[in-house]
Amino acid sequence: MSKLILTVDDSASMRMLLKTSLTAQGFRIESANDGQHGLERMHEVKPDLLITDINMPKMDGFELIEAVRQVNEFRGTPILVLSTEFSDEKKARARSAGATGWITKPFEATKLGAAIRRVCP
Amino acid sequence: MSDEFDDIQAIFFEECTEGLTTAEQGLSAMQGGDVSAEVIAGVFRAVHSIKGGAGAFGHADLTAFAHKFENVLDEVRGGKIPPSPGVVKVMLSAFDVLSDHVECAKGLAPRPADQAALDALEQVLANKGADDGAPAANSAATVAPVAAEPPAAAGEADEFGFVPMAVSLDDFDAPAAPAAVDGAWIVTFKPSRAALANAGEPLLIIRELETLGAEIIGVDTGTVPSLRDLDPEDAYFTWTLRLPAELPESDITDCFDFVAPDSVVEVRRDAVAAAPVAEVAPAPAAAPAEDDFGFVPVTAGVEDLAAEMQRVVEQIAAASPPIGSVETPAIAPKAGAGDAQQTIRVDLGKLDLLLNLVGELVIRNSILADRLSPADRQRVELPELARLTRQIQDNVMSLRAQPIKQAFSRVPRMLRDLSVETGKQINLETIGETTEVDKGVIEKIGDPLTHMIRNAADHGLESAEERIAAGKSPEGTIKLSAEQRGARIFVRVQDNGRGINRERVKAKAIEKGIISADAQLSNEEIDQLICAPGFSTAETISNISGRGVGMDVVRSNVEALGGRVEIHSVPGEGTTFTMILPLTLAILDGMIVRLAGQRFVLPLAHVLETVQPEIGQVKRTSPDSEVIDMRGEYVPVKRATEIFGLNDDRQVEDSLVVIVESEGSGKVGLVVDTIDDRREVVIKSLDQNLHPIRGLGGATILGDGSIALILDIEALVASTNRYTPKGLAA
Of all helices (H) and strands (E), which one includes residue B699? Predict the structure, then answer.
């Protein structure tokens, strides 16, 4: 069974781009359009990996990561942040919220795939 | 894939448009004094998303510019730069350039000159917004290199994350690098507790290194406590691995992308083998935090240690809850839990065809209604069919409808530019942006709208000095509004400027030979001269409205859409241009009336009441005008038959007077022979098949298959009695 990834991003084009490029690499993709929606979808799809944006309406990426990590079931689920932000402060915040890693947009499909396999083989 | 990519990119551009609208609204709000965190965050998020998508789609210039803009917004958001009027002004200019960059990314415009805007943003960043003033020209040198580079530059990778796009060039640039191949890589790795807590699985890294040819040469298990004290969520091992010398260092450091900062990672050349070149070996540039734990590599008994490690790992696994991602079972997603708002993109041609077919369906419906007896109508459930048909029509119409905001969105920017060009202060008020208009109309009113706005800013509004002298506020206002009335859309551009200088307009028209020197014209007729071909009132051709496009082009564009332009001007108070446009094809609630025996459709939305006049109720006040006494109120009466030149010798007492309400003329009575019916009709435009005729808003097909013309009330009642020649000959 191929790995199931939940991608959370408020931009439809970004969700589609992720879906297209990752499906082509053999992953199964589910998506959500903000943090709040992402948290709901976590419980629904129970993915092998969560990839989330940071700047989103309703619930941002930091809040989503914290909320996900508080669920016992998801303590071991790798979480990658995919964001255009790259400040040390933001990364440290994501890290302390419980993120496994950080990928800066723009991403290159193959490198993103490699990064994903690094936490979710 | 590339088609798919194009499709996704098209969605990205739509998001850009939405983002730009949000950003502009936010910035306008900030300009208006609303600098709440919410507004600032909204602008930030919009620009941020544009940047993110732009990067993903490879628009480097757009990304770079959005990045710089975002930096400033981030500082404003964080309270480090105050959102002073000066800073907001810089951001508004940056917004304009950002819009241009988006157009450029779409391939619709050349690359904008963004240096000035970049400089201004840089200046704001440098001064922390302290100096609202002009951007320093000499900051260009410092800005250029930053702007030319994508934001995800190699140097910005830090101990936490890693930038996948970035490749450390050190390995290639360092002259001694090839020589260093002699020494194998020695990697020391001690994952931290935090790595495990964040679901970073060290074994995955070890495995990845193994695929690169790594062999484990040492595992320090000295820190593993007894099983009783063992914390299954902590990490206890330190691994030492040897990797082939010819591997680029970045391949190794890449594997540690997601290693938590307090983990120990050390990448170095094997000291013995690499000794001759050790001093020039490249430094482990991107390696995460390197605390020296004083670890001594164990080089003996590797096999045994590895086996022991495996045993301990198994113990740990048995003692701890399954937290590893590897064990997490993948459960199939529930069906139907997809995104809430899904959209598809459809070829407009298909929608047009659908709309046309539905129109035919509506017509067939009424033919059926005409031909069936009342009993049969019920038997075949005709009313139900009619209702469904109407619903389908409404829905198909709504598929093409878009808020007029899309056409209005260009205006604020245009006015900012005009403000700079003319030196006038111009405020913009917008009303009715959410009015939904057919997409085709939105696309086509852009140019006329642009010209009307330019005209208002250039000719309509006075300079600040003139305004003060005239006792007005120094800032001019342009009001832009849209509303739907029945089957028509009214788009107004209203300025509070000087109004039309009729003396000058008339003189100019005489000079240009448009009218004869002794022509007697009403004020309205003089105003209309602005739209005469070849007319321009500007003394000197300014670069704003004098671009070879006059109001005549506006009028012909609007008339090509089946609409018309009305001009209303009050000297000293301002001018209003109104574009009255039809919905391209719509259902209209109509009253079927007869004029000289022929059937016409009168839009019901205009009808107030119908009167059967008694003798003496309609009075002639002059040879040219009649009024009807409506309970003491005198309402002017127009004979449509006269206007259309139809032969009619019927007495007014034998006719009906339909009181209609018009925008331009208020209440007016229209004399008709009789009223036949009330029904929904499908508008077929005349100008597509014939040419626009003033006084007529289109045609329709009645139930018996015959054609009836639809009356355009506004044009009918606004026309003077002697207007006929021009209107019908047009």
Answer: strand B696-701
If residue B440 lies in a helix (H) or strand (E), which one and from where to where? helix B439-455
Q: A residues 59-98 near B, CB within 8 Å?
A: 75-81, 83-86, 88, 91-92, 94-95, 98
**Per-position DSSP letters for B212-261, written without gaps between them:** TT-EEEEEE-TT---TTT--TTS---EEEEEE-TTS-HHHHHHHTTT--T
Q: Is the pLDDT of residue B142 over 70?
A: no
Whether the Cβ atoms of residue B567 and residue B530 lie closer than 8 Å to each other: yes
Question: Could B198 and A100 be called an inter-chain contact, meaning their C-beta atoms sit closer than 8 Å?
Answer: yes
**E strand spans, B244-398:** 264-269
Tokens (6 digits) for B707: 């054609």
Residues of A with CB below 8 A from B56's CB?
Answer: 13-14, 17, 105-107
**Overall average pLDDT of the B110-137 stretch:** 72
Query: Given CB atoms, is A104 within the 8 Å cutoff of chain B?
Result: yes
Q: Does A113 touch chain B (CB under 8 A)?
A: no
CA-CA-CA-CA torsion sign (B66, B71, B75, B81): negative
User: Which has the minimum average pLDDT: A21-30, A79-88, B463-472, B540-549?
Assistant: B540-549
Could you tell me the pTM of the whole model?
Answer: 0.51
Question: Testing the interface with A: which of B6, B39, B198 to mutate, by most A Cβ within 10 A?
Answer: B198
CB contact under 8 A, B150 and A104: no
Query: What's the residue count for chain A?
Result: 121
Place B478 in a pLDDT band, splitting at 50, 70 and 90.
very high
Give the C-alpha separation, B396 to B425, whole Å.
Answer: 43
**Which residues of chain A lie closer than 8 angstroms to B70, CB-CB?**
84
ipTM over 0.85: no
Rounded to whole angstroms, the Cα distance separating B284 from B256 reads 12
CA distance A67 to chain B (A): 13
The tens digit of pLDDT for each residue in B393-439 reads 778 877 878 888 888 888 888 888 888 888 888 888 889 888 888 77
* Residue B529 main-chain phi, psi, to 5 deg: -60, -25
B211: which residues sit within 8 A by CB, 6+ positions away?
none
Nearest to B675 by CA among B610, B722, B606: B610
Of A83, A14, A94, the residue nearest B194 (C-alpha) = A94
Closest-CA residue of chain B to A98: B198
> B233 with B197: CB under 8 angstroms?
yes
CB-based contact A95 B327, cutoff 8 Å = no
In B331-395 the beta strands, taken as DSSP E runs, fall at none
Instruction: With beta carbons less than 8 A apart as the criterion, state whether B640 and B626 touch.
Output: no
Asked whether the beta carbons of residue A95 and residue B198 sit closer than 8 angstroms, the reply is yes
Closest CA to B608 of B680, B561, B661: B661
DSSP label at residue B614: P
Burial class (CB in 10 A: 0-12, 13-18, 19+), A9: buried
C-alpha closest to that of B693 among B727, B723, B724, B722: B727
* Distance (Å) from the alpha carbon of B553 to chain A's nearest alpha carbon: 39
Using only C-alpha atoms, chain A has a radius of gyration, in whole angstroms, of 13
Which of A31, A47, A53 is opposite residue B339, by nearest beta carbon?
A31
Percentage of residues in chain B with pLDDT exceeding 90? 3
Cβ(B667)–Cβ(B699) below 8 Å: no
CA–CA distance, B153 with B504 (Å, rounded to integer)? 62
Q: Which amino acid is at B180?
A: A
Here the contacts of B235-238 (C-beta below 8 Å, separation 24 or greater) are: B235/B190, B235/B191, B235/B192, B235/B193, B235/B195, B235/B196, B235/B202, B236/B312, B237/B190, B237/B191, B237/B202, B237/B309, B238/B188, B238/B189, B238/B190, B238/B264, B238/B293, B238/B295
- List the single best residue of B156, B160, B207, B345 to mutate versus A (max A Cβ within 10 A): B160
| Amino acid at residue number B565 | V
